[in-house]
Amino acid sequence: MTLMASNQKVVSTPQSDDVVLSVQGVSKKFCRDLKRSLLYGVRDIGKEFLGLRGEKNDKLRKKEFWALQDVSFELRRGEALGLVGKNGSGKSTLLRIIAGLIKPDVGMVRVNGRVAPLIALGAGFNPVLTGRENIYANMSILGLSKEEIDERFDEVVEFAEIGEAIDSPVQSYSSGMAARLGFASAIHTNPDILLIDEVLAVGDLKFRAKCNRKLFRLRQNGATFILVSHNSQVLLSACNSAIYLALGKVVTSGEAKSVVVKYENDLFLNEAAGKSKDSCITEEINNDEFREIKINDCVFIDDQGRIVELLKTSEAVTLCLRCTAYERVDEVIVRLIFRELSDFNELVLELSSKADEEELVMELGENDVLIHLSYLGLKPGLYSLRVLIEAGARNTCDRVDSFTFRVQSSTIMSNCSFYQPRSWKISNS
Amino acid sequence: MKELRPPPKQMHRPSRSRPEIYTAVYRPESEMRRPLQLFNRMWQDLLASRELAWQLLKRDISAQYRQSFLGYAWAIIPPIVTAAGFTFASNAKVLNVGTTDLPYPAYVMFSTVLWQTFSEAITLPMRNMAQSKMLLAKINFPREALILSSMGQVFFNFAIKLILIVGMFLWFGMPVAASVILAPVALVHLVLFGIMFGTLLAPLSALYKDFAKGVPLLIGMWLFLTPVVYPVPSGEGLFGFFVKLNPVTPLLVTTRELATTGVLSDPQGFWWASLVALVGLMFAWLLYRLAMPYAIERMSS
Ligand SMILES: Nc1ncnc2c1ncn2[C@@H]1O[C@H](COP(=O)(O)OP(=O)(O)O)[C@@H](O)[C@H]1O
Ligand SMILES: [Mg+2]
């Protein structure tokens, strides 16, 4: 993928034969208000017909917004591009422009090759007709001739694992069967450019694996992909580059992993920030009713003793509780209760020095309780920590009700509910 | 991650059947600014859409008749009912329509069949468009296919009604003029005239629901200005003037006359109306194409 600065004009590249898709400064505006949108539609049709619509339509009319703004990239044969971004960030809009379904308002798209949208699996299936009839209709909509369909028919049926049911009406199919048939007929059109918009989640695990294998093979044969998926694992296994869109703008683009990591961090943090207003570190230390021990401060520090503001999943960190003891306490019990700030404020981790059979003794005066976490296992997000210090069987001495902190990630954490320290190797015996 | 890029030589793409490279450029500016390119594309798409239209036609017809008990009978029931109703009213002297050159029930039945064919030519493109919203919004197939398949459906439905017409000729013992072989030409012009409206209205009806409601109403009113249940008025009154002005009149009347009496009452009007139909259809096609992306943009949000 080649990425271009927004104002940079793309001069026809020397290997332009190889470029199958070139998107240059594409912007698209939509109108939120339906009534107005229809009115603009009629007006635009009129302008189009009279030839009044120019190359740049970059003025927003009332109630319009940019659904896509100044997106540029190039794809060569055999490349695969991942698109990430929250819902409503313009991914589908971009694919629809590339497919030629809607016109850009600014910029230009050039496509060399046949585009197959894997957007509409089984769109156009008629429930009354048999699977066979639907395959013919659907694949001809996707641009194949009768002979070409004849040629591939058996392959499609076999791939979809429909078997005998091919001659019964599609309305008698399970949703999985229909989706499989849709996928099979779309993928067997052997396109040059595949646009895949969140459709790989169809069918059971086995079928999904088969789809992924098929896509992989297509790519080896030179097909180009653009893949939108919420599953970063799928995305990373299929794509070498990615674009992260937010509110229609390109936030980052480039090597797939770094883009996905950035996206996931933003995603986790935004999710958390939505739940709690103050996204920075806050603490409420209950200072009123301490007994033998008083907690003065609660911070995370690194190996060198520097305060860590932003925690990173998988990295080592130490929780430091700065306390004042008003007498010597033989049997200090520290309890840490971590909750993720989400809809349910779910309990994610509870640590207790008593359960760990640690015998902690606190001398009179200033003490630091250090809890070393050799790998931070928490996934990215916003957390609230509750700290309790107890003196033996006697009751709670002091507590921190809510120490809020953020965790970011430097690795891919999708489909992981915690960080698993690991190492990989193959031993040949 | 290791990048898997195969050497380009090894690709086995289906190049045997499609050697040409498809290049498409999507620009914001009006396609009317590059008319040659536009017309070329329109022609290409028309050619490319024939086979798809055929598949869509097969799909729609089989689905339509498979899900119905009476099936093909639905094509011929309405003209029979209309003819029976008007014949009854006319015999009871409720309605006074004057004399027709054919037996009145046959006149009404034949004219109703023609009228229905015309009105289907207006409504089917709109209906097919509404039914294919999902497809249109997601797949970029040649849009002409929808119109072609609607046209196919119109002719298919007419073919079934032809059975009724043949039966009617036998029943009333009506003579067939030699000019009947020219009747299909006139019929095609009548259908094209309807398709012109259908093509013009289809993208607009995708935007505004008003069209789906208003068009049948207008067609109903139009019926009264067309000599379907009454003969062409001879008088010079306002009504007669409107009926004569109505371009459907010469198209429909000529088709009927070619098939029955062979005596044409208004050949000049027929050619004028045909010209309007052909020029109008080209215009409608252009608008249909240009409007489509804007309509699609607003279809699926
Ligand atoms: N046809 C449309 N009319 C008006 N707004 C639209 C239309 N399609 C999409 N939008 C808006 O454009 C934005 C981008 O949408 P979309 O491309 O579907 O996002 P994504 O696929 O990334 O979830 C959203 O705010 C959406 O509401
Ligand atoms: Mg989307």
Could you explain the architecture of this structure?
Chain A is an alpha/beta fold and 429 residues long. Helix content of chain A is 25%, strand content 34%. Chain A contains eight helices and 19 strands. Chain A has helices spanning 34-50, 91-98, 131-141, 146-160, 175-187, 205-220, 232-238, 256-275, and strands at 19-31, 64-76, 80-84, 106-112, 115-118, 193-197, 224-228, 241-246, 249-255, 282-286, 293-301, 311-312, 317-325, 329-340, 347-352, 360-362, 365-373, 381-391, 396-408. In chain A, strands 10, 12, 14, 15, 16, 18 and 19 form a seven-stranded mixed beta sheet that branches. A six-stranded mixed beta sheet of chain A has the order 5-6-7-3-8-9, with helices on both faces. In chain A, strands 2-1-4 form a three-stranded antiparallel beta sheet. In chain A, helix 6 (205-220) links the parallel strand 6 and strand 7. In chain A, helix 3 packs across helix 4 (146-160) and helix 3 crosses helix 5 (175-187). The model of chain A is unreliable at 4-16 and 275-284 (pLDDT under 50). Chain B has helices at residues 35-66, 73-91, 104-131, 133-138, 144-172, 183-207, 210-224, 238-245, 248-259, 267-297, and one strand spanning 23-26. Chain B is an all-alpha fold. Chain B starts with 22 loop residues before the first strand and ends with a helix. Chain B contains ten helices and one strand. Chain B is 68% helix and 1% strand. Chain B has one domain. In chain B, helix 6 runs antiparallel to helix 9 and helix 6 (183-207) runs parallel beside helix 10 (267-297). At the A-B interface, helix 1, strand 4, helix 3 and helix 4 of A face strand 1, helix 1, helix 4, helix 6 and helix 10 of B. Magnesium ion (MG) is lined by residues 91-92, 197 of chain A.
